[in-house]
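Incident log entry.

Two folding requests arrived from the same account within the same minute. Monitoring flagged them as a possible duplicate submission, but the sequences differ. Recording both here for audit purposes.

Request one:
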Amino acid sequence: MEILRGVSVEVARGELVAVVGPNGAGKSTLFKALMGLIVPSAGTVTYRGEPITGIRTDLLVKKGIGYVPQGRVVFPRMTVSENLSLGAFSERDKRRLDAARDRVLTIFPELRDRLGRRAGLLSGGEQQMLAMGRALMSAPNLLLLDEPSLGLSPRYVSVVFTKLADLKAHDLAVLLVEQNATRALEASDRGYVLDMGEVRFQGPGPALLQSPEVQALYLGVT
């Protein structure tokens, strides 16, 4: 069974690219293929000119790709500090580990006063920031985020999209799969609209948001 067909997506440093579409469009499957969690039957995944199709996820992290999976995946019994350290699992130098943590806390200062708190005691929005921060501990060049606003209060949805803008300003390449199509396209430099495993529309995010066809099909605007 083919879930994705002829999908081609690109993202450059300092750019936020959003992938949106209805449930079952293939958005999360795309990310799993990019991160080596599934191997596509055809096509190639290329990172900085190097084919990486099917490479193990831990090796992709070492190559500079960070991944924030759907669902605010944190280790609830571990502290915030311990969760962050797991994001730099290959780093053995304490000074570099501390420097990485300081960089993350510059982006997510809300976590600084919670370093000793168990992650399971954080709010949903704080857990999402922790998941994002943990992915940044390895100093990636490319960050993939799968549905980062899912299940969050409106306040924390706004916080998450503000943080995404901050990440772009740090010269990261950010690729985002998001169920909140309006917020994602508003924030993105470019967007792709998936439907039935194919790219139906692509272009600048704000332009897609204003497209009558995209509005009618995916945003419920008539």
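Request two (distinct sequence, not a duplicate):
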Amino acid sequence: MWKIFHLLINQINDKVASRKSIENHIKIFNPEHKSGITLTGSFILSLPISTRYAKILTDVCLKSLAINQTSSIPLACLLVSCLYMESIFSYDYKLSVRFGKKEKKKKGNNSSNDIGNIGNVGSNDNYDNGRNKSNNINNNLMNLFFKKNNDEVNQAELSSCSSESSYCENTFSPENYDNNMNNNVLEDFKLKFDNDIDFYLNLCTSFYFADDKNNFCYIMHLDKKKMDELLKLSNYLIKIINVKLNTSINFDILEKAPSELSRRIIHYSVVQGFIDHFAIRSDLIRNDYTRNSNLSFNNKKAYFTQNMKSPVYINSTSVLYKNRPYPKYILYNYIMKNKKSYVMYDCLNINDSDLGKITNVCIYINGYEKIPPAKYDIQNDKIIVCVKPFYLPCSQYLPITTKELSENDFLFYNYLAFFILDGSMFPKMSNFKIFYSHSFNDIINCNHQNFKHFINALRSNKINNRAALISKWKTQNNFLKKEFLSLIERKFNKCNQRLINDFWPPLDSTKIGIGV
């Protein structure tokens, strides 16, 4: 990956990205700046699961402990254990999904043929006999895969299970309901979610709290042996977390219904873990490779990823499979080959705004867009910029989206200085605009030494928002005054000295608690 970055510096067009911005991107993620194995790396290596899942779990643990949301940790243990198992569904269910679609098509074709042959019954007796024989042969073959149950469903029992609570766990049983009814329960449960990750979270927690786990597995078409292994692995992960992080977490704090905060923590960690498995809907591809390819594929359903030269599709068991329209972008866990195509598993849809918030080596941002311009959100005390992310593995531009700048972002203090000076952050600063001889680009590009002094004063004192600057002025009311005077010295004279003294700091005296 690092060789690719250095290759980009030498070959990439200046219109796409400047050499300076690429070098800054490399410095942020370059592992050469780190010596030895960090504590985080040691924790990842201690987990008995794949590195990808270990990173997801580690990220959840660190974020959850930082904000005291420990209930998301056992939830994450269940999720990574589920992903590690690759597939928790029974073999019969996977066969039914795979061959069920063919049966429906066959029945549809047969019914249309029956309608077309109504007027020719006498002339087509031989044809009907031959077709019946072939149907009998096909039915016998299908019976090898599917269980046939001739028991009729009790209508009263069906109506009693119409409610959605606890999936009618107490009333479902193998003796009363056939596979078709169970399929409906699972498919109805899938309709509640728009991605596989949320589906797995709720499915695993429901299994954990189920009174009769065998019956639950039968109803939801789960592999009982794998689900038992999932619980064992989850408990083992909890033990490692307690030893390594010196905590006392257990499954007693597991939420029956994942909270929104836990869900957001896990989603962000999964996005960071799956970001190199990024699929783009085929109609959004703009690079030369796919534009000039002669591959034939379904344009409405196909996706392209940097890991495959062929189009890939959503697998038929995924929650996303029946959603329309298909999402623009999908993060997936792995790809497998079917008879005729490649399909993605464990899919998570991601929108444009989420892409702009990702801090990852795969997402490169070449500065910030000038149109629409950056703005200061005074209510949330945040600087908002528009960015056009560039997904490096695919060399694919992503749509323009907004991003909240943090102190670790490129040019953060330059934008902070600009919004202080232009009056967006402190309206009283507008009184000094008549003395300005600089432009927006002068501050952002830091063209003069005086701007560097002003920006460095903010950085060295860790002033990263309006609240921090107000707090600084409470203890030091002449903070930034000298640096500001150096910016307006060309148009400044002794007559204006009193104006500066009366208005600095540029706040009401009631806000800072001092007389000015």
